[in-house]
UniProtKB/TrEMBL annotation:
Family statement drawn from the similarity comment of this UniProt entry: Belongs to the Rv1128c/1148c/1588c/1702c/1945/3466 family.
Limits of the HNH nuclease domain: 323-375
Entries under CDD domains matching the protein: HNHc
UniProt cross-references to SMART domains, sorted A to Z: HNHc
Highest taxon in the source lineage: Bacteria
GO molecular function: endonuclease activity; nucleic acid binding; zinc ion binding
Protein name: Uncharacterized protein DUF222
Organism: Blastococcus xanthinilyticus
Pfam families found in the cross-reference section: DUF222, HNH
Length: 417
């Protein structure tokens, strides 16, 4: 690592070494919180100094010394910053140079780097030019923003900044909401998907309203999922509902649907079979996961010859016909897994004995299960319907999941048809 010639940075580094060497295991809450508060203030001060130095490097063209064109590219390459983080530090440095009151508050540790980033648009060249043209007292705005950033919640600071910027251009053209929207997907080696997006205020409100409606409609007792997991499950449920409704635009003459390709031998093999099935967009899943998806879908038989050419394309048939699904919905009402209240339109029709293993596609061999519990049943949990029409749920160890109150003298009450 390149050495630096600053005695102050050397002392800072030594102080950090001393802090890192201290044992925290014997400290109690108040002492830890006091320590944390001091570290947060120090972190704010250090972030302000980083932004100040980055700005000075930008002004003097220091990036060229290492063969880089901009300080953003230097931060990406030498400090391993993400593109977004690098751009944010550069913007903060420029803002601190234009807003001395905010800079002083940040240097004292009273204002965080995140707050400076929220204020930065105020110091953008276009904003400063508009303020000068309208005779706005930028110094007064600077002082007011420093006060709000140091004393009020971050959300309130963002509102103040947005209000100020809107006042600078009250008669400006209403922006096209679609111009700022973006959604990108990144597929990982294990088939999982990451995505990143940007929505305008109205578009974001629509997404939050839709996701929140499903989150609030599915809050069973004992739910241990985090808020992030609940929201992700709700987003998947939205997709399930939209795909099942059949109203989405067609793709290459067919309605959009989840495509799974799996060999028949893997499909009927009770083993997990990792990496045995392939999804339409390129992900690879296990045979067990494919069996779960095949519970309630369309199946097409394709015979492949030794040279890889399709020899026979069988007729596609619906595993669970519509009339059977209606009957299962009428009987079960919703997910039959103990303690779940997911409605019928969130559920798949599960074959209690999988059709690939010889199970009949019949009312007696069918049950409604939501996505979460359908997965559970394909991974060790078991459901069973007694002669009185009550559903029972069993853990992988064979013990029954009972819904309060726990009554052992008679079968647990559940959603009976």
């Amino acid at each position: 690592m390149r050495s630096n010639g600053s005695p102050a940075i050397s002392r800072l580094s030594a102080a950090l070494d001393e802090l890192a060497a201290e044992d925290l295991s014997g400290k109690f809450g108040p002492e830890l919180l006091e320590r944390l508060g001091g570290l947060v203030v120090a972190s704010n001060r250090l972030s302000a100094e980083v932004a100040r130095v980055v700005r000075e490097c930008e002004v003097t063209g220091a990036a060229e010394h290492d063969g880089q064109k901009t300080m953003a590219s230097w931060l990406r390459g030498h400090a391993r910053f993400s593109p977004g983080a690098a751009a944010r530090v550069v913007r903060c440095g420029r803002a601190l140079a234009e807003l001395p009151a905010v800079a002083a508050a940040a240097a004292s540790g009273a204002v965080s780097a995140e707050a400076v980033a929220a204020i930065a648009p105020v110091a953008a060249p276009a904003s400063l030019a508009a303020a000068e043209e309208q005779g706005v007292d930028v110094a007064g705005v600077d002082a007011a923003l420093a006060e709000v950033a140091a004393s009020r919640p971050h959300a309130e600071l963002r509102q103040v900044v947005e209000h100020y910027l809107a006042r600078l251009d009250p008669d400006g053209t209403e922006p096209d909401p679609t111009e700022g929207r973006s959604l990108t997907f990144a597929r990982h080696a294990d088939g999982s998907l990451s995505f990143r997006g940007e929505l305008d205020a109205v578009g974001g409100e629509k997404l939050q309203a839709a996701v929140e409606s499903i989150v609030q409609a599915s809050r069973p007792a004992g739910d241990m999922r985090t808020r992030a997991q609940q929201s992700a499950d709700a987003l998947v449920q939205l997709c399930d509902n939209a795909l099942a409704a059949g109203n989405l635009p067609t793709l290459r003459t067919v309605k959009p649907h989840v495509v799974v390709r799996v060999d028949l031998d893997d499909l009927v093999d009770p083993a997990t079979g990792p990496g045995a099935a392939h999804l339409g967009f390129g992900a690879t899943i296990s045979a067990a996961r494919a069996r779960w998806l095949a519970c309630d879908g369309n199946v097409t038989r394709i015979v492949i010859g030794p040279d890889g050419q399709p020899l026979d394309l069988g007729r596609t048939h619906r595993v669970v016909p519509a009339r059977l699904r209606r009957a299962v919905e009428a009987r079960d009402g919703g997910c039959v897994f103990a303690g779940c209240d997911a409605p019928a339109h969130w559920c798949d029709v599960h074959h209690v004995l999988h059709w690939a293993d010889g199970g009949e596609t019949s009312l007696g061999n069918s049950a409604l299960l939501c996505e979460r519990h359908h997965t559970k049943v394909h991974h060790g949990f078991r459901i069973e319907r007694d002669h009185q029409g009550r559903w029972h749920t069993y853990r992988p160890d064979g013990t029954e999941i009972l819904v309060l109150p726990h009554i052992t003298e008679q079968p647990a009450r559940s959603r009976a048809g």
